[in-house]
Design brief:
The protein is built from four helices and three strands, in the order E-H-H-E-E-H-H.
Length: 82
Amino acid sequence: MVKVSASDFKKRSGEYLEKALKEEVVVSKRNRPTAVVVDYETYEALKKRVETLEDRLWGLMAEIVYEKGRFEEVTPEDLLNV
């Protein structure tokens, strides 16, 4: 992982975009991470993983609601115990 200030990223964006093809580039403003630059394949893989996890979560919620009969009664603990 490469860490860089926003001002340095702005000055040398081409160089950091090339680095992002191989590893994450964390851009900070006022010493706080504000953005991460990754290659497009990594981005798409992460996006797909989030969508898969969201789909699974909604499936678990539906199972619990079906068993309990009411959505309001579903707790985070219920999701962990399925």
